Amino acid sequence: MILDKKVAEQTINYLTQINAIKLNTKKPFTWTSGIRSPIYCDNRLLLSYPEIRKFIADRMSEIIANKYGQKISITGVATGAIAIGAMIAERLNSPYSYVRPEPKGHGLKNQIEGYIEEGSKLVVIEDLISTGKSSLKAIKALRNKNLNVVGMLSVFSYNFDFANERFQKENISINSLADYNTLVEMIIAEGSITYAESNRLMEWRKDPQSWS
Asked: pLDDT tens, 83-138?
């Protein structure tokens, strides 16, 4: 869920401005999962723009401080959230670590990099939440080390019902600066797409697996 509509709209304006959000209902993008999507969101681009990355890191830091307090640790999910997670940890003066999708195949074979004090509250940072599969995989790796994951915060979420149910089942609180619902509302309000296209966008969020 988003916590501030104005922040959500400004986030989307920024991401659209730098072409991090791409929309095409006629030639959908194909995700790694095989889902065909009318939208592609590449939040790695925001790191190239000082004003935008500052806005994102500032807002996410404020949310964490207000929701979880100051005495927390930050963990970024590799690779998209490593940099933004580090920026947030710097602002909050918090310990920082990051988690890989899989353990390294060499050296110490770590999946979690960095020191996390036992018993500390851990907030996980994502650049994007889609199906929730990779995010929950990261959380599972942290919990397998008996770490206290108290929540996850992302830059953008597709806000799929089935993904939200997965997080609820694992008792994980998730929040995002912006989400797909707000994006579609803004596009419709601008009048930049047809009525048929707006319907297709809404249909996709309800059932992305069979939409195409």
From this structure: 999 999 999 999 999 999 998 778 887 999 999 988 889 999 999 999 999 999 99
String of DSSP letters for 176-191: EEEEHHHHHHHHHHHT
Confidence band for 212, pLDDT divided at 50, 70 and 90: low
Write down the H helix ranges in 18-132: 50-68, 82-92
CATH number of the domain that residue 111 is part of:
3.40.50.2020
CA 189 to CA 79: how far, in whole Å? 34
CA 151 – CA 130 distance, rounded (Å): 16
- CA gap 32, 20 in Å, rounded: 18
Average pLDDT over every residue of 15-30: 92
Domain ranges, residue 171: 5-211
- For the record, the structure tokens of 186 come out as 């803004």
Does residue 38 contact residue 23 with C-beta atoms inside 8 Å? yes
Report whether 67 contacts 87 (CB < 8 A).
no
Q: How many domains does the chain contain in total? A: 1
pTM, entire model: 0.94
